[in-house]
Design goal:
The protein has five helices and nine strands; from the N terminus they run E-E-E-H-E-H-E-H-E-E-E-E-H-H. It is an alpha/beta fold. Helix 1 packs parallel to helix 4 and helix 4 packs across helix 5. The longest helix has 16 residues. The chain is globular.
């Protein structure tokens, strides 16, 4: 199957050589929305490059909720997530999260709806919504290779590094939890190209277990 991935982030630069084709997208902001999903920061483009590297045939959708900085209010975040459900995404890659527990009910409601549609939501394991049941919570593990994912104590572990830049040492490139999430999304999308639904999740767990940690 062709996997559709909604990247809820700062947009995507469709001309970047690491990205390939962007199938569609939207810019959501306080006053409304527009089709201008082009990235002005670079973060969403780097995330998209990680995913495209692993699943070149996947359809990438840029759900731009950030403008000039990596911050958005909760209403815009939820609109971005709802956009993904309304447009048939198979995976939602969400690099942003919050520790504010007052938003828990809204994220729980979203995850119930996502799970009922068979949509996987990949986010940071130590923040909402990634810490909630029904999400794929991810933490970074520098010892992981970029083509592996591990599973331990209910959390998926992945490399915090994006695609390398020739001539730039890895420690001077972008890195962090956002790219662990993107690496996990790309590896999940690989599994989903040949498996669907609960079978895809079981196969993804098996892949994580084969890396040498307990499932």
């Amino acid at each position: 199957m062709t996997v559709r991935v909604g990247i809820v982030d700062s947009g995507i630069n469709p001309g970047h050589p690491h990205v390939g084709q962007v199938t569609g997208g939207v810019f959501l902001y306080a006053e409304g929305e527009s089709p201008d999903f082009v990235d002005r920061i670079g973060h969403g483009t780097a995330v998209a490059g990680v995913i495209h590297e692993k699943v070149p045939a996947a359809e990438l959708y840029a759900v731009r909720i950030f403008d000039r900085r990596l911050a958005a209010n909760i209403d815009t975040v939820m609109r971005g997530l709802d956009w993904c459900l309304g447009h048939g995404m198979h995976i939602v890659n969400l690099s942003v999260g919050t520790a504010n527990d007052q938003y828990r009910p809204r994220f729980e409601d979203f995850l119930r709806r996502a799970n009922s549609q068979g949509v996987f939501v990949v986010s940071a394991a130590n923040l909402l919504p990634g810490m909630l049941e029904g999400a794929i919570g991810v933490d970074s593990a520098g010892e992981c290779n970029r083509d592996e994912v591990r599973f331990h104590d209910g959390i998926f572990l992945a490399s915090p590094y994006p695609r390398s830049i020739p001539g730039v040492p890895r420690e001077f490139n972008l890195h962090g939890i956002s790219f662990a999430i993107a690496n996990c999304t790309g590896l999940l999308a690989q599994v989903m190209e040949s498996h669907t639904g609960n079978d895809a999740y079981r196969q993804f767990l098996a892949r994580a277990g084969n890396s040498g940690t307990d499932v």
